[in-house]
Amino acid sequence: MASLAATFGRGAMTNGWVDIKNADVVLCMGGNPAENHPCGFKWAIEAKKTRGAKLVAVDPRFTRTAAVADLYAPLRSGTDVAFLLGLCRYAIENKRYHEDYVKLHTNAPFVVSEKFGFDDGVFTGLDAEKREYDKSSWAYEADPKTKAYALDETLENPRCVFQLLRKHVDRYTPEMVERICGTPKEQFLKVADVVTSTGTAARVGTIMYALGWTQHSIGVQIIRSAAILQLLLGNVGRPGGGVNALRGHSNIQGATDMGGNAEILPGYLRTPLAAQTTLAEYLDATTPKTLNGQPWPTMNYWQNTPKFMVSLLKAVWGGTATAQNEFGYQWLPKMDGPYSWAHMFDDMYRGSSKRAGADEPGPEGLISFGMNPVATGPNSGKMIAALAKLKWLVVVENSETETPAFWKAPKEYGTPDVSKIQTEVFLLPATLFAEKDGSFTNSARWAQWKWKAVEPPGQAKLDHEILARLFLAVRDLYKKEGGKLPEAVLNVSWAYGNPASPDLSDVLKEINGKALADLPDPKDKTKVLKAAGQQLDGFVQLAADGSTMCGNWIYSGCFTEAGNNTARRVAADPGGLGMFHNWGFSWPANRRVLYNRASADKDGNPWDATRVGIRWNGEKWVGDVPDMKPDARPGEFGAFIMLPEGVGRLFAAVLADGPFPEHYEAEEAPVDNALHAKVTSSPVAKVFKSDKDKLGKKEEFPVVCTTYRLTEHFHYWTKHNKRLNQVQPGFFFEVPEELAKEKGIANGQKIAVSSARGRIEGMALVTKRLRPLKVDGKQLWQIGFPIHWGFAVEGPHAGPLANFLTASVVDPNTFTPEFKTFLVKVEKV
Amino acid sequence: MAVNELEVRRSSASVLGFLGGARKLPTVSKYIDTSTCIGCKACEIACQEWNDLPEVATVQAGSYQTLPDLHAGYWNLIRFNEMEHGDTLVWLMRKDQCMHCEDPGCLEACPAPGAIVQYANGIVDVNPDKCIGCAYCASGCPFNVPKFAEKTGKMQKCTLCVDRSRVGLEPACVKSCPTGCLHFGTKDDMLSLAKGRVAQLKATGFAQAAVYDPPGVGGTAVVTVLAHGDHPEWYGLPKDPQVPLGVKLWKGFLRPLGFLAVLGAVVGAFGHHLYHGNKGHVDPGPRDPDETGTAA
C-alpha cells in the first residue's frame, strides 16, 4: 500500500468491490481475482454483463481469471513494470491520456529540480555501498520569488514532471516490452488499445491487483506504474476507476489500518523514531509542509497530524497523558531501525538485533498471533532455524500449525536435532472468526460488524481476552516488581467493564473517539458542539490540546452517539452506483470512493454524467461523501487532499527506490536487464545475508518459478478441512507441456524442484496454461505451484512448504518478500 | 402424492405413461452460463452439504477437476478442459449434473415401477424405495449421469434439490454461486436469460455462442450457455443427445408387449387356478445377502 499512499495519499483500495461494476475496462494483473477473490470478482462479471465491459487478464499463467477474460496476454513473472510503463508510453505517444484530467489533477505541470536525473538504471543520489538513495535531489523546483511550486501548465517545459515521465517511459516501446516480458508485441498492442481506451471523460477503467504485484523486490514500484497509468488515463477518483488492491484476508485492511506494521501506528501515523526525542520533534518531522497558498492551493490534510496523534495518545494513556508530559509520548516505543517481520526473523536467526550502532542480542521470545511464520515467511529453513534459537514461543491459534510444530519439521528443512532445541513452546487455543463478535474491514475499507455464529470449542479463548489477560498479568508484575519504564504499562487506560475480556463494542467506541471536555462549536463559540463524554461525529472534531481522545482517527465516525455504524445494514443504493452509504461504515468519513473530487472537472461537473462521484451544486458538493471540504468551491483546493501538493503524483519523491518506477529484474534474475546491463536488479532491494540466505544463479537454476493460491483452499489453514481437501487434495507443480516433454515428465508424475535454498518433491500437473516465453531472443521456462500445504497435518494432505524455495529478499519500502519470482531447476524423480 | 408433495407427471415402468395432470406447474430450470463460470467449486461443496453427502476420496491426478466423473456421492462436478482453439487457449469449465430432460431416457429405461419419476415441475428424481439398483437408467441416459451407490444399492444423482425447489428455494448450487453464472427459475425465464447472454456473447466475438437445450431429449431443465456453441463436446456435452434406440424400443414396443404377455399369463394363471386349485408353494429360502442390490 506504500505506493498508493505515495501516489494518492492513502494506502488503500481506491474504490471498492461493488464499484467495479461501473467500469468499461477491467484490467486484472498482478492478481487472479477469479481464483482468490471469487465473491468480489462477481462485480467484474457484472460489468461485463451489464455494461459490456472488457475484462483483460495479464499474467504469467492462463488463470481462472483469464478463462473468463475477453483478452489475455502472458508475461514473464516479475516484469510488470516494463509492461505497465509500456502502457504509459502508449498512452502518451498515441495521445490516449486524459489531458484535462492530467493537467488538473496530477503533478504533471510541476517543474522538478535540475539536480534530479536518471542515468543507466540509477537515479541521482544512490549510495551503492549502503544500497540507499539520498532523495534530496528528487525535489520540485520552487519559484524563487513566490517560494511556491514552479508550474508549467503547457506541460512543455522539459523539466516538468510530464516531460520527465515521457522521457523516462520512452524506452518502453512495444518491442522492448516484448524483449523484456516475453509478451508478443501484437498481444501487448491489443491490451494497450483496450486499456488506454479509457483515457477519456466518457470512459473509465479499473485495475484489480493483489500479491502478484506486491510480492517482488520491486513490488511497490510495480504498483506505482499502475497508479501512474491510471492518473494518465484520468481513472482515479471516478466511479468504475481506481487502483484496486484486493486484500486476501477478510480483515487484512483493518489490521493495516490499526497499525499492524512496525512502521505505523493506528491511522497511518508514523511510528516514532529514536531520533525524535520529543513530541514536538516527532510532530515537526511527520506533519507534511506545503508551499501552501500559491499557486497551487491544497488542503494538505495531514497538517492535522498533531490532532490525530494527541487524540491517539489520550486513547492509550487517558488521564495520565497531559500536555505537561507530552501526552505520554515518552512512553511510546521508538524505532532505531527497521523492525519489519523479515528483519525480526533475521535478528532471531543471527542472535543479534544490531541497530544504529548498538549491538544487542537477538529476541529471546516471540508471541505469534493469528499467523504462521514458518509457512508464510520466505526461506522456511531459516524460519525454523530462527525459532530454534528462541527461549520461548507463544502461539495463539485455533489449531496446531507449522509454527508451534516447527521442531517437528522434517529433516530436509535443516531442522536442528530436537534434543538441541531449547525453545519452550506454548500453544494457546484461540477462537476462529465465526466464534466471536467484532468487525471486519474489507478490501473496500468497509468496516462491517458481525456477530458470533457459534460458541468457541473447548478451552478456546477470544483473541482479545488472551491479549487483555496477558496485559493484566504483565501490569501486575510491573506493580509488584517494577522494571524499565513502568509508566508505559502502568499508565495505560483500561477502562473496560470487564478488564479481562473487554466488550468489543467498547473498543470500537474508543476507536471512534469521544470528547473529554465540552467542545465548543467552531461556528458559534458560545455553543457546545459535543459535551464531555459524548462520542464524536468524526475526525473533524479532534483537537490537539487533549480535549478529545480517538483510537484511530480514520475510523472516527464508526460509532457515534447514533450507535454502531458498522452494524448498519440498509441495502439502499439511491444512485445505483453501488455506494450503499447506510451499509456498514467505510473510512474515512463513510466515503465510498477515495479522491472523488477528481471525478469532476475544474468547474465541479462530473467527467461522465452517467457516473457521478460528486458534483458541485453551486453551494456544496453532492453525491458520495466528498473527499474535499464540503463547501469548498471548485478550484479552492486540489483533489488529492492528503498530499501536500494537492494533486496525484506522477513523480513521487518519497519512496526508497525512485521517484519513477524502473524495470529491474528479480534479485534472482533469469536474464540480464535489457535496459541497463550494469544494473540488473534493484540497486536498493534489501537482501538478507546470513549463511541461510543463499541466492541462485541462472546458470544453475534456469527456470523462473512463482507461487500462488487456489480457490479451494485458504492460505495454510484449510488443509484440515475435509470438504476442501476433497476438491483440492494435495500439492502439485504446474509445468508447461513443452518443458515436460523436454524433460520426459508425464502428467501426474513425481518431480523435484530445487532452488538455492531447498528442494521439494511433488506431482507435476502438465498444462498448456504455462507457456515457454521468448525473452530477449531466448526461450525461457516458467513453472509455478500453489502454497497451501505443510507438515502440520498428517496423512495424504501433508505437503511441502512452498516457501522452502523462496528467498529472504524484500522490497526496500514495505519489506515484502519476493515470493513471486525466484529461480529453480526441475528434475524428474 | 400427498397435497404438499409434488405431483408426479410421469413414472418409470408405468404402462399408462402420464399419471398426473391435475395441476399445471411450470417446468423449473437451472441456468448455467459457462462463459462466466470460474470453476470455484462452491456448487460442488454446497451440493454435498445440502444433500448430506459424505466426502468422496479424491487424489490429485493432474487436473483441477475434483473427480474424473460424476459419482453416486458426488452429484455436481465442474468439468475442466484446457485446449487450443485456433491460436488461442481456452480453459473451459462446465458444471455437470443431471440435466433433468423433458423426455428422460433414465425414466424410460427403468424397469422398476415408480423408481424414477418426473414431477409436474419437470424434475426427474430417483425414488430409493422403489429403485432396484439395476442401473438400466444409466444405460438410458445420454449424459451418463445416474450412478450406482455401493452402500445403498440404489441409483443416485442430482435431484435439482427437489426439497428446496418444492418450497420455492433455488437449488443449493445456485445459492452458492459467487459470480451469478447460475440462476434458477421457470424454463421460459431461464431460456430468455440464456438467449440474452448468447446475443451478448455473439456481439463480443463469440459468433458460435449458443444455448444448449437439446431437442433429442425434448429439451433439458438445465439450460446451458456455451460460448463455443458449435462444439458442445469441448465442454463434455454430447452434440445431439438421444434416448438410446434400445430404450425407445423397450419403452414404445417391447414393454407394452411384455405387459400384454404378463397380463395373458395372469389371466391364464387365474384360469388355471380356477380349474386346478392351489397346490401350495415352495419357499425359495433366504437370498445370499451379497446378492442384494447388485443386480447390475
Description:
The complex is a heterodimer of chains A (829) and B (296). Chain A is an alpha/beta fold. Among the domains of chain A are: 2-250, Dimethylsulfoxide Reductase, domain 2, CATH 3.40.228; 686-828, Beta Barrel (Barwin-like endoglucanases), CATH 2.40.40.20. In chain A, 23% of the residues lie in helices and 15% in strands. In chain A, the strands form twelve sheets. Chain A has a six-stranded mixed beta sheet. Chain A is globular and about 85 Å long. The model of chain A has no long low-confidence stretch (mean pLDDT 95). Chain B is α+β, with helices and mostly antiparallel strands and 296 residues long. Chain B has one domain (8-245): Alpha-Beta Plaits (2-Layer Sandwich), CATH 3.30.70. Helices cover 26% and strands 18% of the residues of chain B. Chain B is built from seven helices and eleven strands. Chain B has helices at residues 42-50, 105-109, 136-140, 162-165, 172-176, 187-203, 245-276; strands at residues 8-11, 28-33, 77-85, 88-96, 116-119, 124-126, 147-149, 154-156, 182-186, 210-212, 222-226. In chain B, the strands form four sheets. A four-stranded mixed beta sheet of chain B has the order 9-2-11-10. A three-stranded antiparallel beta sheet of chain B has the order 1-5-6, with no helix packed on it. In chain B, strands 3-4 form a two-stranded antiparallel ribbon. Classes of the chains: A alpha/beta (829), B alpha+beta (296). Chains A and B meet through α3, α4, α21 and β28 of A and α1, β3, β4 and α6 of B.
